[in-house]
């Protein structure tokens, strides 16, 4: 089993790619945005928006991994602190961690896809560069990105 983290700015296509890869593996796909929207719908507020959603996704991911399922986390993961959550989880459960950093190499296309360009710009301002092993996918150039991502995620996990 594998813990995969799909990271990148809003609107780059990471959720679409995560769902496609999750269906093909198969894997449980857990989206931080989905949890965050649900928390807000029930008036759950917090001083650091989105923070609780990462914790909920981490708890759900742990449960799924302990059940023997592959897990894909779909989240912006803009800063090292958010990313460390997944490193710690993978280490604790002794499962491989695979990071897929997703971006859209064309600003016009990225702007078209994004629900809010202001949110993209805000995330971009706080986004720290990734370091370490990862697969980088440009959803603008990659016409068929699912197969290379599957190959990366399943490398030495069976």
TrEMBL record:
InterPro entries: P-loop_NTPase. It comes from the Bacteria. It holds the Pfam family AAA_33. Keywords: Kinase, Transferase. One of its GO terms (molecular function) is kinase activity. PANTHER family: OS07G0160300 PROTEIN (PTHR37807:SF3). This is Adenylyl-sulfate kinase. The lineage of its organism: Bacteria, Bacillati, Actinomycetota, Actinomycetes, Micromonosporales.
């Amino acid at each position: 089993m594998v813990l995969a983290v799909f990271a990148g700015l809003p609107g780059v296509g990471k959720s679409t790619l995560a769902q496609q890869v999750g269906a093909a593996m198969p894997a449980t796909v857990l989206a931080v945005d989905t949890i965050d929207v649900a928390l807000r719908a029930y008036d759950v507020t917090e001083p650091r928006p989105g923070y609780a959603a990462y914790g909920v996704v981490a708890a759900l991911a742990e449960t799924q991994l302990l059940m023997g399922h592959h897990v894909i986390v779909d989240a912006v993961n803009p800063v090292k602190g958010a990313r460390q959550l997944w490193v710690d989880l993978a280490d604790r459960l002794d499962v491989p961690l695979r990071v897929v950093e997703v971006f859209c190499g064309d600003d016009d296309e990225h702007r078209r896809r994004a629900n809010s360009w202001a949110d993209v710009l805000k995330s971009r301002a706080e986004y720290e560069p990734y370091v370490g092993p990862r697969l980088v996918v440009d959803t603008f150039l990659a016409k068929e990105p699912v197969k290379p991502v599957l190959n990366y995620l399943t490398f030495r996990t069976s």
